[in-house]
Design goal:
- By secondary structure, this protein is an alpha/beta fold.
- A hairpin with a 3-residue loop joins strand 4 and strand 5.
- Among the domains are: 167 residues, Rossmann fold, CATH 3.40.50.410; 34 residues, no CATH class.
């Protein structure tokens, strides 16, 4: 007798319906953020490897006379030009940190913000004729979607980021080794994380990115929630480290709040300066910003050699 699979529960169907609704919204918002101007700037930021012959067509005012096809022109007694299209085959890999600290949020679920940023990057690449893929990581490789030149891959990327369950501790050594093993051709890597690391850990991360940059283009994006930089004055409170899960009681007083703010600003400054010294183009993002505009401004910059 053929075994029948159990009917999915109402809770499962409702959850699936909600995820599909979010995917549709995020795709809509992402594609609206990618104007023709943004696409043009993206193509300038990542120029193609060359030009391929496309067709011979009639001459239009403004066409480069160097592209005139004289044999065709002589045969038809009318100007014809050779047209070309840009050869694009860049691999764009979006690496998203899904460790426990990325589960923190105050106003909007961080996963939705991350999915929106990933969608903007993916659809920019796909609309320009490039390939887009995804790596989700923590202290292991959580998921991997190979880069493909198909619009459907943008939807799959949104779905994967939304479904990611924050777990473990961010281990950039795991990601570094994985990328070195799978990327056989020059690629553009967008690394999205909160980068809440100590100074020696930041130095180690920059060293790993330098190794990747020998063959690939690497662009780190930090994503932070405003609430991560402000401590509420609660008196005695039990606090928990989201990555290590360690908890302890402490008195959240005014001096502690001021010291915490100084330490966080110091960490942000050290991170930014470390990337700058290494010649790595870096984009810090805050929850609630216009991510489409921030990406537009980012692509307007001249990438370092």
């Amino acid at each position: 007798m053929k075994r029948q699979d159990p009917e999915p529960s109402a809770e499962f169907l409702e959850k699936r319906k909600e995820i599909l609704r979010r995917i549709r919204l995020l795709r809509l918002f992402a594609e609206r953020s990618i104007s023709s101007q943004t696409l043009g700037i993206y193509r300038s930021f990542f120029p193609g490897t060359g030009m391929d012959f496309s067709e011979i067509r009639g001459y239009y005012f403004g066409d480069d006379i160097r592209n005139i096809s004289w044999p065709t022109t002589a045969k038809n007694r009318k100007l014809y030009v050779k047209s070309f299209k840009e050869d694009r085959s860049l691999n764009v890999v979006i690496a998203v940190d899904c460790s426990r600290s990325m589960g923190f949020w105050s106003k909007t679920r961080r996963q939705e913000n991350m999915a929106y940023i990933a969608a903007c990057l993916a659809f920019s690449a796909l609309k320009a004729g490039d390939k887009a893929g995804l790596v989700l990581f923590s202290d292991r490789i959580v998921d991997y979607l190979p880069a493909k030149n198909a619009m459907r891959n943008g939807v799959v990327i949104i779905d994967a980021v939304l479904r990611a369950n924050p777990s473990g501790i961010a281990d950039f050594s795991v990601l570094h080794g994985f990328l070195l093993s799978i990327l056989k051709e020059p690629s553009a890597i967008f690394l999205i994380s909160d980068f809440f690391l100590s100074e020696p850990e930041i130095d180690d991360l920059v060293a790993k990115l330098r190794v990747l940059r020998v063959r690939h283009r690497v662009y780190p994006f930090s994503f932070w929630d405003q609430a991560e930089f402000v401590l509420p004055e609660l008196g005695y409170a039990r606090v928990r480290d989201m990555e290590t899960q360690r908890t302890e009681w402490c008195k959240i007083s005014e001096p502690l709040i001021e010291d915490y703010h100084r330490q966080m600003e110091k960490k942000r400054t050290y991170l930014r300066e470390s990337f700058e010294k290494a010649g790595i183009l870096y984009l810090p993002l805050l929850e609630g910003e216009d991510y489409g505009k921030r990406l537009f401004d980012f692509f307007k910059k001249k990438p370092p050699l």
